[in-house]
Amino acid sequence: MAMGSCSNFEDTRTKKKKLSGRSSASVVISIWVICLSCFVDFAFGATTTRLPDDEVEALHDIAESLGKKDWNFSVDPCTGESGWATANPEKGAENAVTCNCSFPNSTVCHVVSIVLKSQSLQGVLPISLAKLPYLQEIDLSRNYINGTIPAEWVSLPLVNISLLGNRLSGRIPKEFGKITTLRNLTLEANQLSGPLPPELGSLVDVERILISSNHFTGPLPETLAKLTNLRDFRISDNNFTGKIPSFIKNWTKLEKLIIQASGFKGPIPSEISLLVKLSDMRISDINGTEMQFPPLSNMTNMKTLILRSCDIIGPLPDYLGEMTKLKTVDLSFNKMAGEIPSTYTGFPNLNFMYLTGNLLNGSVPDWMLKAGDSIDLSYNNFTLGSSGVPSCQQRHVNLFGSSSLGKNESGVVPCLKSFTCSQNLWYSHINCGGREVTINGNTTYEDDQDSAGASNFFQSRYNWGFSSTGNFLDSDNNNYYIANTNASKLLMDNENSQLYTTARLSPLSLTYYVFCLLDGNYTVKLHFAEIMFTNDQNSSSLGRRIFDVYIQGQLVLKDFNIVDEAGGAGKAVLKNFISVGVTSGTLEIRFYWAGKGTTVIPSRGTYGPLISAITVDSEFTPPSSGKKMSTAAVIGIVASAVGFILVVLGILWWRGCLGHKNSMDQELRGLDLQTGSFTLRQIKAATNNFDPANKIGEGGFGPVYKGVLSDGTVIAVKQLSSKSKQGNREFVTEIGMISALQHPHLVKLYGCCIEGNQLLLVYEYMENNSLARALFGSEDCQLKLDWPTRRQICIGIARGLTYLHEESRLKIVHRDIKATNVLLDKNLNPKISDFGLAKLDEEENTHISTRIAGTLGYMAPEYAMRGYLTDKADVYSFGVVALEIVSGKSNTSFRPKEECVYLLDWALVLKERGNLIELVDEKLGSEFNKEEVLGMLNVALLCTNASPTLRPIMSVVLSMLEGRSAVRELVSDTSISGEDMRFKAIRRHFQYGQDQSISESLTHSISIDGPWTGSSTSAPDLYPVNLDSQYCNGGI
């Protein structure tokens, strides 16, 4: 290397002095030639650098791991040229490799900092960073990096680690406790899990720990008490347990403390009073034990004070009036009572004060009503002023519902003194945050373009209004409604898409009111579309907007996530709520941010509820208006209608359609279908008249087609053979089951078509087909699934089953969980499909005795042998699928040893040998987290215990997989023979399958699922795995 020659200049000179017979002039010329060569090589872009070779090699490895393609290794990385540094980075983006060339040996430099912020990197965290021995800073914020955090980084003298806004999973390495030089650890907005390692308590010089928006569990380790140099500590949006520890009193240098929706319970420890340097304290959503206002009188530096939804009772403390530096105060949604203290005579620096949702009484101080600050006093018990009638809004003070008088006879709160109901209505349509639009030619959605504000009540010129509370912290964002930008392209192209191009936002609480309604039941439809995140593979797609929805004071959606429900950003999702009662003329719909979700993606201050449109329609016949028709006219119309109906019925009967329709109607009668309906014409147009080119699979009772609706929505159409009465039953069963189930990890049923002899189900289209094909289909069909993706698929299936078993209104036993019945969307999110075999798990029955139906190799032994069915049968099947996910092998086709029938056999053998890690798919290489893999495998074996009573329920399974609870030890029931219970029936049927002698009656109920075949005949797959390569085209 040329630079290497220069660095060895002294050695070269020494050797030349020893040469005999050389003139001094020759020596000088030789030296000049060597140095000139060094200069020319460096000036004209030789592949050498001033960095040691091993650091150059490390940068090559780092670039490959991160997918960093603009580093030019033909120039010196320390020059900051040609991709090594960006001169004018975009806002929030930074691209810089920084070297230190001032070491005692000035002939070399060392990399000391790598900052690659918002570079759309999609790789994994490089272990090779550990090969840069002088590296002090790693900042890879806001990228799309996955994988785990390498423990090998412990060898570095790191001062700053910032990995904010990526897809990292796994745990914080306990080895990080040895990086004693560390000052900043920022891991916010990732998918990290498990408890915090106690070893972090050794980071005695650390000043910032930011780990919000992850999945951390357990209590805070007691060892963190030693972090006496902490200045900034943020742990919001996690799953911690217990209470806020009292040892935080040791953090006397703390300036910022943010603990919102962390999982902790109250009360706030009194020792918090010792943190006198706090200037920003945010604690929210720690409901538990009621408590008095915490002692904060010594915190004279406080600028931002948030104690929201903390179950605080009693009066407001007088001393808050002495905190003259306060800018933001949020004490909303507690149970504080009494009057506003006289010491609150005006805060010189106050910008926002929120006292909404308490029990405060007395009169509202004049200084508040005259102040230019944003103050929210809504929903309290204040008494009226001298005028006798309060206003809803005075300057920037929100007074809606702040009076103790309640509502008037029309259901309108007293402050709406100028609002009169000229007529009672039975509908309301609001285009939230947008202009007036007309949908389908006859439904007008009223405009909603008020600028709103931090404490605002807005009354429209129609029969509705809204109350908005909160300001976006840590952000310059003052927009309370938004229009869609290039950040998120709407994936719709129809007339209804106009409703989703805008939305109203709120950083805390947004409540819509519809007034002057006729009493009765209404259907409320809430329209959502996420238009601030993207679907691209960058950090802007990693945002999680989570909020709660209340209707008439009742919680109807908990931890609602638009992107999860819709299947991506820019996609519409409609939530229907039927039989919403209105008894006093007013409907109330509230959206509330409970501290969950990310707050830093795509930038800080992006969070809170978002709503696109609201539809309210009566479920009763509205009163008629206008002139009455004459009796003769009415008789004539009725007679004509009856005659026409009789003619149509006669034609249908003559063509043989009427009996079939009535039969199907009887089977559908009583089902509370929550889906749409499609005409056969629509389906034919979508599938090009069931063109064979659109056929994507063959199910047990008919083919499956890909189609595109007129609005651009891609669908999958499952066609049922009309000749199968059993098919009819399962068709009805599947409609009834899945129409009542809505969850991000269940396949979405758009609707059905029952017309003539056609029975069709219309599903969302799943771009990546089934998990079975992704794992063990033909080579051209398999997907490259890294470990974080496999782990998330397994967790997603567990979440779906937890919903079916424990959370849905109907408790469902699926009966046929297997890899072919798990579908993958374009983001590889898993969704459980095929409910043709599902059964209601009736609460009064401890089990269901039923005919056996399912797939051998996945059926629990007690079910396969005796038809004994509980939700533990699904748990067993899930365990088998989990083994397949880790191993990449089919349970029914993998036979490593002659004595082992299934993959599960082999897993148990390896478990006994203490070598379970051998089961890991060789395609993963070494790119996996060993602790997570072993945890998942042990959970899988717990699920496949021969005794159903020893299997955990799905919520416990989910908790173990997410790291919120420890994995239990595998226990066997000695009263049950594993040979007899686990394998007796399945070995028998396996042998029958080999001999092709399964009885006809059995094949109607049970299938032997091979690696590429479909599922059971009675529960066909939506996307059957097929060896034919044509099914691999077009993303299927």
From TrEMBL:
InterPro entries with a match to the protein in the record: Kinase-like_dom_sf, Leu-rich_rpt, LRR_dom_sf, LRR_Rcpt-Like_S/T_Kinase, Malectin_dom, Prot_kinase_dom, Ser-Thr/Tyr_kinase_cat_dom, Ser/Thr_kinase_AS
Major location category of this protein: membrane
Keywords noted in UniProt: ATP-binding, Glycoprotein, Kinase, Leucine-rich repeat, Membrane, Nucleotide-binding, Phosphoprotein, Receptor, Repeat, Serine/threonine-protein kinase, Signal, Transferase, Transmembrane, Transmembrane helix
Domain of life: Eukaryota
Catalytic activity: L-seryl-[protein] + ATP = O-phospho-L-seryl-[protein] + ADP + H(+); L-threonyl-[protein] + ATP = O-phospho-L-threonyl-[protein] + ADP + H(+)
UniProt key word Glycoprotein: yes
GO molecular function annotation: ATP binding; protein serine/threonine kinase activity
A Gene Ontology term for the protein's cellular component: membrane
Enzyme class label: transferase
Protein kinase domain boundaries: 690-976
Enzyme Commission number(s): 2.7.11.1
A Pfam family reported for this protein in Swiss-Prot or TrEMBL: PK_Tyr_Ser-Thr
Compartment(s) of residence: Membrane
Membrane-traversing stretches: 25-44, 632-654
Membrane topology field: Single-pass type I membrane protein
Xref: PANTHER family: LEUCINE-RICH REPEAT-CONTAINING PROTEIN DDB_G0281931-RELATED (PTHR48006), PROTEIN KINASE DOMAIN-CONTAINING PROTEIN (PTHR48006:SF52)
Protein name per Swiss-Prot or TrEMBL: non-specific serine/threonine protein kinase
Source organism of this protein record: Protea cynaroides
